[in-house]
Q: What sequence folds into this?
């Protein structure tokens, strides 16, 4: 039996508990949450910490398979430059280098208080690590292809991966991004998902030229990906931003998370809310700074279901949900810390359908117990020195 207490406890389910106490067994199963010290509990039995105790973090967007690219891709080249660099270096690494980078990356996530991950996979290289891991993974098998004639082959490759995955309830087939999937391929993915109530993850509006791509059939991304050539001139611009142009092919999906949303505007958000009540907006601010040197306008999303992702080590210096929150807090200091913690815990658990176990500190759950230290508790804000310690 363990009793943890701190200046505050963010349970994710109700108000902050000042000097509350969480009781768990050795496995981290929450047995009791006390608002204040019960009379029969001795002070010396309680471990008291400075800071905030919160549930384990949910990282809703990562690419574990790209971990070997840490520090290998130039920053601030915009998305088309990033993709270009990624394609030119990715063959230069051995199997052993890739494997050890993935193991190291996973250990880093564990050390940083992450308990569950929504992870993108293009191949099967991460599957055996995931099968043995103490982390919970939902794997999004990613598929792409702008040439409609190649849709069937691309889809059947992803279907094979889907069928070999070790946990059939924690895997989906998902389109890569709004700009890289033909209408025919979308149709195949959608058909597969709707039947299974799968969770969908889509890279969305990561760069301005992604909107131009759909609106006018032009721009850096449209040129770089040679869309006119691949579609034999049949691409029809929608006159709309990337999000409504692409997402309308995915009606009646159970849950959808849109990743990045850096160039999503107010109208896009309203459109998405009308389209589905199960949209989750995943933000990876450090990757946005790395690739585009800009951030989404978070103030547009304060009433939405937001989640936090680290993206991959190809576009980030570390895999830490807290570091992502610190970046948001630095640029948008008015967003309350409780809101940020909700994005990092409760919402992600709900998206990945693991809220029975993770996301809140409640009796009967095993959410992981994190301590955030070095906060500005007077103003209730993260500081550049805030850090996470895993208590259990
Ligand atoms: Zn990504």
A:
């Amino acid at each position: 039996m363990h009793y943890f207490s701190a200046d505050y406890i963010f349970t994710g389910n109700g108000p902050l508990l000042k000097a509350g106490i969480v009781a768990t067994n050795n496995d981290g199963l929450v047995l009791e949450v006390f608002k204040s010290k019960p009379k029969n509990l001795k002070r010396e039995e309680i471990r008291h910490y400075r800071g905030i105790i919160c549930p384990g973090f949910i990282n809703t967007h990562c690419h574990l398979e790209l971990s070997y690219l840490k520090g290998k891709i130039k920053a601030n080249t915009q998305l088309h430059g990033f993709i270009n660099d990624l394609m030119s270096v990715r063959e230069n690494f051995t199997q052993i280098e890739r494997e050890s980078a993935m193991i190291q990356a996973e250990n880093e996530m564990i050390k940083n208080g992450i308990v569950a991950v929504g992870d993108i996979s293009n191949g099967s290289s991460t599957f055996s690590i995931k099968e043995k891991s103490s982390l919970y993974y939902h794997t999004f098998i990613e598929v792409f292809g702008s040439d409609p004639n190649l849709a069937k082959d691309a889809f059947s490759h992803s279907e094979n991966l889907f069928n070999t995955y070790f946990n059939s309830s924690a895997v989906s087939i998902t389109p890569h991004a709004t700009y890289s999937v033909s209408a025919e391929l979308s149709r195949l993915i959608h058909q597969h998902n709707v039947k299974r109530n799968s969770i969908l993850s889509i890279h969305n509006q990561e760069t301005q030229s992604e909107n131009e791509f759909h609106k006018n059939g032009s721009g850096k991304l449209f040129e770089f990906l040679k869309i006119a050539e691949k579609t034999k001139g049949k691409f029809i611009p929608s006159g709309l931003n990337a999000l409504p142009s692409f997402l309308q092919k995915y009606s009646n999906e159970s849950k959808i998370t849109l990743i990045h949303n850096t160039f999503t505007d107010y109208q896009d958000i309203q459109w998405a809310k009308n389209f589905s009540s199960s949209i989750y907006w995943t933000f990876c601010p450090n990757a946005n700074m790395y690739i585009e040197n800009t951030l989404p306008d978070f103030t547009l999303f304060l009433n939405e279901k937001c989640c936090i992702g680290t993206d991959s080590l190809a576009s980030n210096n570390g895999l830490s949900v807290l570091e992502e929150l610190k970046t948001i807090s630095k640029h948008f200091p008015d967003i309350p810390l409780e809101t940020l913690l909700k994005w990092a815990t409760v919402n992600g658990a709900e998206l990945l359908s693991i809220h029975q176990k993770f996301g809140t500190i409640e009796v009967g759950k095993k959410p992981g117990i994190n301590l955030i230290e070095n906060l500005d508790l007077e103003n209730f804000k993260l500081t550049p020195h805030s850090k996470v310690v895993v208590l259990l």
The pocket of zinc ion is lined by residues 61, 63, 120, 203, 259, 311 (CB under 6 Å). Residues 120 and 140 are 5 Å apart (CA to CA). The domain at 1-56+360-392 is CATH 2.30.40.10 (Urease, subunit C; domain 1). DSSP finds 14 helices and 15 strands in the chain.
